[in-house]
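Structure tokens please, single chain.
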Amino acid sequence: MLKGIKTFIRAIEMEDARILSAWLNDRETNAFLDIIYPLSKRYCDNFTLEGEEYNKRIFIIDNEDRKPIGLVVIDKIKWEYRNCEIGIVIYDKNYRGRGYGKDALETVLKFIFDDLNMHLVYLNVVEENEAAVNLYKKFGFEVEGILRDRYYKNGRYYNIIVMSKVKGE
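Here you go.
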């Protein structure tokens, strides 16, 4: 388990599949995520089991009271190149805008760079998700490029910003 100031980052467990199912089917929260269809409990069970694959790690973000409030995914881990993709979401609306995402991101980045010895972390974020873009910039992520009209939801296309951070920068 990883400990931040406000959050605990822990491995996902099968008991988390029920809350994960509710989170992944929350269309409002997932407005900027690549989740289009309603997801079954079976899908969530399988997603939970993927949490310890060789090139992927899935973590639950708990608050100070050990209540699950969000999710972190470290994906596409390329051990030979020392890079990976990261995704983070605070699903519990009561904890958004209160520093929990910032604390979880800081805790996970420290783990990625110091414990996994990654050299570079990258992510994709919908251009209109200004809160996320600003948070990533505060942590030193730089824009690598824009993927035009790469994401479609609610009758329109959105651009995706590709951002990355190199260890030590």
